[in-house]
Amino acid sequence: MKELSLSVLDLCPILSGKTARESFTNSVELAQFTEELGFERFWIAEHHNMEGIGSSAPEVLISHVAENTKRIRIGSGGIMFPNHSTYHVAEVFRTLEALYGRIDLGIGRAPGSGSRAAHALRRSTDLSAENFPREVEDLLHYLQDELPLLAVPTNISLPEVWMLGSSDFGALLAAKMGLPYSFAQHFSGHSAIPIMKMYRDEFRPSRFLAQPKVTMGCHVILAETDEEAEELALSSDLSFIKFVQTGKSMPLPTVEEAKKSGLSREDSQQVRLTMPKFVGSKEKVARELSPYLNSGISGIVVTSMIHDQKKRQHSYRLLREIFPT
Questions:
Q1: Residue 132, domain extent
Q2: What kind and span of H or E run contains 302?
Q3: Do 321 and 26 meet the contact criterion of CB atoms below 8 Å apart?
Q4: What letter does residue 253 receive in the DSSP assignment?
């Protein structure tokens, strides 16, 4: 299997039967564990009004994880621009970069919330993202001290800015601006391969990046056997089904709770049409990932929504065995 950079996308899942503090401790332990395995990045997502997802304040968690790691790059996957002032984002991430020197700023145009949270965050129910290209330009100007209004601290290295997206919009914008791009295959209804190719074909070199650089976000659940991996995946399958049915996020259930729920094989298969996962043994997952790897990506950014922390860590260990350094 080809050499590939591996990174983590952590939603800081709140686990059934556990506290938020325990979930945050799990995130730190996962960052330390994957750092030792040689993973390149550890990104934290932004979501709001979701009881089962603890990453509502990624800036705080980025600082906490960075303080407890040594080498791995820590960042946002991503900061959702409709919720924030670009000036404040520049200040926050310059501060993080000044503190730790290995910060990524992944940005996206989705709100990561519904209309109620959007109103609370922005005092508006407008979920449009028409201003996103201009806001990205403003952010880049702030980060390079090109505006009269300074984003302090100044005179520091730049956080690495990534464009995140789940459609051709983000891919084309990243290509036009000469930014690295990460495609969210794990929740996109679009085919990853043509969109990532579009980004590479349309890429224009910039002061930030000379050659196109694209990664793919994906949900991977690995175990020693296909059967065990399918069992571990029941937790996230049930969680998503309940979200679709009720509109409410739930703490990530245990495998035993998922089994008792009456979740069927057909239910899981239907879920994965909308929220695709790579689930199975090393051999099966390597085979299923192969078409994407051959499309020219430089890395994958992996989330593994597994209730059991040790089995979650083992899933990342098996992933490293598929893609050794």
A1: 5-224+278-322
A2: strand 299-303
A3: no
A4: P
- Asked if residue 142 is part of any domain, the answer here is yes
**Cross-strand pairs, 164:** 182
Mean pLDDT of the chain: 93
Q: Tell me whether residue 244 is in a domain.
A: no
Per-residue pLDDT tens over the stretch 23-68:
999 999 999 999 999 999 999 999 999 999 999 999 999 999 999 9
Q: Establish if 125 belongs to a structural domain.
A: yes
210, part of any domain: yes
CATH number for the domain harbouring residue 152: 3.20.20.30
If one counts the domains in the chain, the total is: 1
| Ramachandran quadrant class, 107 (left: phi over 0; alpha: psi -120 to 50; beta: rest) | beta
> What angle, 0 to 180 degrees and rounded to 10, lies between the N-to-C axes of helices 282-293 and 309-322?
60
CB-CB neighbours of 57 under 10 Å: 13
Long-range contacts of 283-291, Cβ-Cβ distance < 8 Å, separation of 24 or more: 284/226, 284/229, 285/220, 285/222, 285/319, 285/322, 286/1, 286/322, 289/218, 289/322, 291/193
Among residues 222, 302, 289, the alpha carbon closest in space to that of 11 is found at 302
pLDDT tens-digit readout, 58-108: 999 999 999 999 999 999 999 998 888 999 999 999 999 999 999 999 999
